[in-house]
Amino acid sequence: MKKIGNLNVEDIRNDFPILKQKINGKDLVYFDNAATTQKPNVVIDTISQYYNSYNANIHRGIHTLAEKATAEYELTRNSVKNLLNAPTLEQIIFTRGVTESINLVARSYGGANLKPNDEVIISTLEHHSNIVPWQLICAEKGAILKIIPINDAGEIIFEEYEKLLNHRTKIVSIVHVSNALGTINPVAEIIQKAHQFGAVVMVDGAQSVSHLDVDVQALDVDFFAFSGHKLYAPTGIGILYGKKHLLEAMPPYQGGGEMIQEVTFEKTTYNELPYKFEAGTPNIADTIALRKGIEYVTAIGKQNIALYEDQLLQYCTSKLSDFQDITLVGTAKHKISVCSFSLAGVHPQDIGMILDSEGIAIRTGHHCTQPLMQRLGLVGTARASFSFYNTLDEIDKMCVAMKKVIKMTK
Ligand code: PMP
Fold first, then answer.
1. Which of 297, 285, 275, 314 has the alpha carbon at shortest distance from 55?
2. How many domains does the chain have?
């Protein structure tokens, strides 16, 4: 195995049982980490331990199992608070993922604060989950959705963003790192500018928390969301962080058990934060396992991860650039872990299918960013996205397989 940096990738790979298998007779090369990351043993084992030994509903139980389950569940909140450097535990709300977190903010904050002709700003780089919830609430409230344009490298044009801001801007919702192109947005500057106009800023951290350090206080971000499944933890658990005064003033998103203080048929009073936004029995096992994913990543160290993955990205970029017919899509100065590309005259799906026959898992298509693809004039791209368990040898394998793709499709 070619070595880079100071990560012991061989040991790391041993923690991920799924990576040991063969696909179509070839060693699996998993390059679809932007869609979801694989899970280490410690995460998988935590889920079965929960169901094997302390499965119980949380918060209202006084028996031993319920107390243990509640304590473990709440430990994850603490872990997320530390991960994001959030000021208090009440500001960490468990959701199903980024999609639900954005819908919560759009519906609850947007629903309470948007008036006709108010403006919401998003960018051309957004995932559908940071477009559609805003379209829905804007249509309901008569508000207007404004879009920050990008340049051909896939970077937002900051001066155009500044031009869009005005006293009618109420919300800016922006992706931290593009899932389709890997572009890192200058979120600190975006937030600072929005605040000058009194707008709140939501950051979609789906692709950033597993690669970059995120400090919500240093960023001064109003809302921040991420999904556990892109952070080596299970699907079905995500996070919404919010500033306390904003969350306190927001109406509940869903009604039901747990989010109430007292219910009568005449009137219901709501629970305090964060429970006001956590109606119903939550995803207990996966929330507990999220802590293990966070601990796993923290033990490796985000700085080490960033350095290692950057070398994978540089290597892949330079290898793919050697192909005459391949065009790299997304060449931002600041980008991470995503290599999107197209091959002249070949549908991305065909690339994906041929690579799959070689055991290589990439993603092809629009990556839930159809407006971005329209802007780039593409039906989609082929996307290899990296994790710290990937290797230079795997990139070599993909390049060999790309030669086969070219041979078969020309
Ligand atoms: N935003 C970005 C940038 C994403 O990559 C994704 C997942 N592909 C989402 C939002 C939605 O995340 P989830 O499906 O986990 O809710």
1. 285
2. 2
Q: Which of 275, 298, 321 is the last residue of a domain?
A: 298
Q: Of 268, 298, 328, which closes a domain?
A: 298
Q: Whose alpha carbon is nearest atom 12 of ligand 1?
A: 98
**Which residues are marked as active site?**
368
Decide whether any atom of ligand 1 lies within 6 Å of the 174 Cβ.
no
pLDDT interval class at 4 (50, 70, 90): low
Reported in sequence order, the residue ranges of 206-352 that DSSP labels E, i.e. its strands, are 223-227, 238-242, 260-263, 268-270, 326-329, 338-343
Ligand 1, residue 175: give the atom nearest the CA: 3
Tens of pLDDT, residue by residue over 28-67, are 999 999 999 999 999 999 999 999 999 999 998 899 999 9
Q: How far is CA 403 from CA 205, 246, 322, 364, 393, in A?
A: 35, 53, 11, 17, 16
**Residue 26: domain span:** 3-30+301-409
Q: Could you list the beta-strand ranges (E) of 91-245.
A: 92-95, 119-123, 144-148, 169-175, 200-204, 223-227, 238-242
For residue 367, give the ligand 1 atom closest to its CA: 8
Q: Is 95 in the pocket of ligand 1 (CB under 6 A)?
A: no
The answer to whether residue 35 sits within a structural domain is no
pTM of the model: 0.97
Whether 18 and 55 share a structural domain: no
